[in-house]
Amino acid sequence: MTVPPSPDPACLVRPDCVHRDAYVSREVFELESRRFFGATWNFVAHESQLPQPGSYVTLDLAGRPLLVLREGDGRIGVFYNRCAHKGTKLYTDEAGHAGRVLRCPYHAWTYRLDGSPLGVPLRKDYDLQALSRCEAGQGLTRVGAVAEHRGFVFVRLDAQGIGFNDYFGEALQWIDNMVDRSPTGRLKVAGGIVRNVMRCNWKMYLENVNDTVHPVSTHESAGKSAKAQWEEGGTTATGAILPMAVEQLLPFASGYEFFDGMDAVVYPHGHSALGVSFSTHSNYAQPPGYEEALVAAHGEARTREILDRAPQNTVLYPSIAIKGAPLVMRVIRPLAADRTLVEAWSFHPEGAPDLLLERAVSYNRLVFSPMSILAHDDVHLFESVQQGLQSDGNPWVSMHRGFDPAELTSTTARRCKGTSELLMRNQFRAWRTFMITTEAA
Ligand code: FES
Ligand SMILES: [Fe+2]
């Protein structure tokens, strides 16, 4: 039975543990949908999805339908996907092209590509002055704020709040690390998006992104079978080039020492980089000619920096988790207290060998697809935790590992061991902060 939530969400987060209502309570979910997701910056689209004026993508952000649109002047605008007449979603496809005007499928009201009203059928039957004075006459409503970094488009739904650069700060370098893997500095979304609805709270999924203690036990069978297959093939001779799938799966067979030593950094507002010393991606072979193309574009020093920094996961809280080296990204979308949509995206770096896209798609299929030999291990456990938290008795979820009281007053980037639960505590501290930001309510 769920305990009624505290009227003060601040009470749900302690320095080293979190109340189960943060995961299971429908009331808390409703509150965070408005308050937390209103105040924070969330990823909505990549510019390569919007090649020309009229191109659009749609999405649901914490219960709000959004329309991301390339406007007539080339800028990217983000509107609520709601007709000014009676509320119909203007577009329901995931992506498409609107043409030169936006047209509602219900009663054919039209809008310019900047969202302003253009026409209504039976115009003579309207008092046009009265219409222009009320909400219906204003056209589409823009979200509070839009910002773009290296082709990644984010929104803050609230009109007022923290600025984009203040919010992400140093964490933006991890978008740069992935984008600069293209010699031209441009990525393209490609290879399809793997979508998976998990029966768990979105915060549980984001915790798992930074959970390096679970692979040893949760993914034991996958790691072992990758190792066994490779060794049985008799191809362990020195210098042998690993097949792509083996290269991607073999590191999951590593022990606690490996994950401990990979180290991590947390940033203000819940962001993090796990695997700043090394990661399961560190030893990927590069396709012929790729490094040379990067050196020609970025110089030797920057190329080394780009390729040598291959974190396990970098989280731009709360909507995306990036893996720069395999060029993949997960997008996390809350649907309900116990439902989360997780999308696995792959990118092709412009000017780089096609093999990199193949590697990205392979990674998503092997590791994040629900039919892979890895993802179902996690999916089962997410559902299990969500159910286990319905228990009476202990209402607290432990996040004690690696706790240091000094972290409570830290306001800058902070380094820790790869297995520390600081990365999770850091997320929940940010969650608490934005849940109690009253102007965002
Ligand atoms: S609801 Fe869009 S035109 Fe009527
Ligand atoms: Fe996992």
From TrEMBL:
GO molecular function, one term: 2 iron, 2 sulfur cluster binding
Cleaved signal peptide residues: none
Regions that span the bilayer: none
One Pfam entry name: Rieske
Gene3D superfamilies, A to Z: Naphthalene 1,2-dioxygenase Alpha Subunit, Chain A, domain 1, Rieske [2Fe-2S] iron-sulphur domain
InterPro entries in the cross-refs: Rieske_2Fe-2S, Rieske_2Fe-2S_sf, Ring_hydroxy_dOase_asu_C_dom, Rng_hydr_dOase-A
Record flagged with keyword Iron: yes
Residue ranges the record marks as coiled coil: none
Entries under PANTHER family matching the protein: 3-PHENYLPROPIONATE_CINNAMIC ACID DIOXYGENASE SUBUNIT ALPHA, CHOLINE MONOOXYGENASE, CHLOROPLASTIC
Protein name, UniProt field: Oxidoreductase
Originating species: Pseudacidovorax intermedius
